[in-house]
Amino acid sequence: MKNKNSFFDTLSQVLGKVSVKLSGNIYINAIKDGMLAYMPFAFIASIFLIIAFFPVPAFTDFITNITGLETAVWQGKLALVNDASLGIGGLLVLLSISRSLADKLKINGMQVSLTAVVAFMLLVPFGSQEGLKFIDVTYLGAQTIFLSILISIVTAKVYQFIDNKGIKIKMPAAVPPAVSAPFESIIPSFVVITIFWVLRLVIDAFGGGSALAIFNTVLGIPLQAVGGSLPGVIIVKMFSQLLWFFGIHGDSIVNGVMTPIFQVLQDANKTVSMAGGVPTNIICQSFWDSFASIGIIGSIIAIVLIAKSKRYKEMKKIAGVPYIFNVGEPTLFGIPLMMNVIYFIPFILSNVASIVISYIAFALNLVPVCTGLAQVPWTTPLIISGYLTTGSIAGSILQIVCLVAVVLIWLPFVRVADHQLVKEEAELELQYQTKEADKEVE
C-alpha cells in the first residue's frame, strides 16, 4: 500500500509540474480564450443549420409548403448565418486570439488585432474577374484556424519586441492616450506588415499558391492526422483524465491545444454535409463533446443502482440532475473520485471505452459520422446530443450503448467502495451508540 501511495504521489507531482507549465503558458491560454470566444458563433450557426438541414423529410416538406419556396432556396437563406459567422471563422479566431495574447503581453490589444488582420489578408490570395478583385471566402473560414493562430502569435511577439525596445513615435505627455496610442503603434505595425508582405512576395516568387496551402502541408495536415486519429484522441483523453484525477482541470489544459484541431475537422464535415455529401472525419468537436466524454456519467448511475451506504445515497440525490447535463463535479469532488485509488482505473478507462466503442460504430457505418451541422454545447443531455450531432437516432442509441458499457466498468469499483463505506458507517454508528450508552450509565 505504501508503494502504491508513493507511486501516486510521484505521478501527482509530475503531472502537477506539467500542469503548472501548461496552465501558465500565455500562448495556450490565449488560444483557449480565443476559441472560447469563437464558440458562441458556432452554436448560433448550428441552430440555423439544424433547422435548414433537419434530418426529417416531413419537416423539410412542411417548411417548403408554408414558405412557398424551393427547398434549396429557404435552406440557403438560413445558411446565410453560417456564411456570416463560421464562414469567416478563421478571421474571428484571428481577432480573438491576437487580442487575448496582446492583453496577456500587456501591449495595445486593439492595434495588435487590427495589425494581425492586415497581416492575415496579405497572405490571402486575391482573384480578379472582368476587372473586379475579389477574395475567396474559403480562405477566411475555419480551415484557416491554424494559420490564424500562427499569425496572431507572430504579430503579437514582433509587436511586443519593438514596443519593449521603445522604438515608437512618442507624443507629448499632454496628448490623451486615446490619441497617442495609434501613433505609437505605427512603427511596430509597419514592421509586422512588412514581414508578412515580404513573405507574400516569397510565396509568389516560388510558384504562387497560398500560405494556407503551404501551412496545411507543413503543419496543419499532420496536426489533423494526429488529433483526428483514434490513438491520438485516446492519449489526449487519458492525459485529461489523469490531470482531473489529481485535482487539475484537465479539460481546461487540453482544450487550448485540441479545440482548434477538432474545430477544423468539424468544419470540414459541415461543408461536406451542406453540399449533400457524406462526412468522413470521425473525430471532430462533436465527437469529443458528445461521445468521448460519457465515462464519468457511469459513476453516478452505478451509485444509483447499487449504493447502500448513507453517503452514496445522499450523493445520488445531489448529483442526479447535474449529470443529466454532463456536469460531473458533484461526484468528482463529493465522492470524491479524484485522488481516490479505488476509482483510478474506471476514471481513466471508462472514457477510453466510450471513445473506442463510438469510433468502431462510426467506422463500420453503424452510425452516421457527425454531420458538423449541429455543434451543440457539451451540456446538452445524452440522447438529444447524439441525435442532433449525427442527424440519426442511431447516434442516440450509440450513446446509450456507451453509457451501459461505462456503467458496467464502474459497477465493481463502486461496489468495493460502497462496501467499505458501509463498514465505516457501521463502525461509526457503533462508536456513537457506545458513547451514548456510557453517558446513560454515568
From TrEMBL:
It is found in: Cell membrane. It comes from Coprobacillus cateniformis. Its main location: membrane. InterPro entries: PTS_EIIC (IPR003352), PTS_EIIC_3 (IPR004501), PTS_IIC_cello (IPR004796), PTS_Sugar-EIIC/EIIB (IPR051088). It is a multi-pass membrane protein. The phosphoenolpyruvate-dependent sugar phosphotransferase system (PTS), a major carbohydrate active -transport system, catalyzes the phosphorylation of incoming sugar substrates concomitant with their translocation across the cell membrane. The chain crosses the membrane at residues 36-58, 78-97, 109-128, 140-162, 174-199, 211-236, 243-266, 286-307, 341-362, 382-411. One of its GO terms (cellular component) is plasma membrane. Keywords: Cell membrane, Membrane, Sugar transport, Transmembrane, Transmembrane helix, Transport. Residues 11-413 form the PTS EIIC type-3 domain. This is Permease IIC component. It holds the Pfam family PTS_EIIC. GO terms for molecular function: protein-N(PI)-phosphohistidine-sugar phosphotransferase activity. GO terms for biological process: carbohydrate derivative transport; phosphoenolpyruvate-dependent sugar phosphotransferase system. It comes from the Bacteria.
